[in-house]
Structure formats: C-alpha cells, structure tokens
TrEMBL record:
This is ER-bound oxygenase mpaB/mpaB'/Rubber oxygenase catalytic domain-containing protein. It comes from Mycobacterium heckeshornense. GO terms for molecular function: oxidoreductase activity. Residues 17-163 form the ER-bound oxygenase mpaB/mpaB'/Rubber oxygenase catalytic domain. Coiled coil: none annotated.
Amino acid sequence: MTKRHISRVADLLNPAAVLLPAANVIMQLSLPGVGYGVLESPVDSGNVYKHPVKRARTTGTYLAAATVGTDADRELIRTAVDTAHRQVRSSPSSPVSYNAFDPRLQLWVAACLYRYFVDQHEYLHGPLDDAAAAAIYRDAKRLGTTLQVGEDMWPPDRAAFDE
C-alpha cells in the first residue's frame, strides 16, 4: 500500500469518518455552554432531532469550507453560521450562561473536531508521523478561526494543546 502524504485536516477524511462522530459530539456537548446551547437553541431549521440530515449536511459544509475552502468560501459559511448563531444565547432561566458567538465555546468545539479527525485516522491507519501531526495541527486552527476564534487563541503547538 502506498503511503499518502498527509498535511491537512482534509487528508484525514475517509468514509468511516461519517460513521464515527458520536464520541466527538458527546465530547463537544460535555462543555455546559455548548451542550445547553444545542439543547435550548431556538433555531429549528438546524435542530438535529427535527432535521438530522440537514444538520449533518450543514455541518459537513462547514467542515469542507473550513478545511479545504478558499477565503471566500470561509467568509460565506461564516456569514451563514453567524445568522443561526445570532439566535443562540442563554435566557434568564438557562442553568448556565452561553452565547454561540463566545470564542471560548467555539474553541472547544474546534478542539474537539481536531481530536476527532486525528483519533479516527489513527484508529484506522496508525499514528501520524511528527511532521504530518504538526502540519495537521496547524491546519486545524481554521476549524475555529473560520468563526470567531482568534488566531492567538489556538494553542501554539500540540504540546500546548495537550496541556
């Protein structure tokens, strides 16, 4: 088998990736601000319980734009996501305070996505070499910076990320 050159998050995509996201979703939702944001979201069109196929499609579109899209693609998806996120914020009766524009919550989701891509690849194909792992990590920053995560919020390297 020929070994592929791996340097981007998109290089980790494989058919199994669409079948194995449950652990990633659980990890994302485990942060209370993210979990309650999803649970209490008034955005019915993106509700995973009411429109699971649409939710999967829009998430896939976001991931594609963030990982392999152009700057224009990322701007387009940011505008679309921002429209939905504008409505997602805690109410006085919410058990935790949250706002979908909170870059710390978005950083958590981006970090979970990064771990998901790496974990599913390594489970199927074995560990990434150091050069590929470093390149993937740098590329994964766009999973957050496509939205409101500032460039300086993404930890500078994998060691800092793991802390």
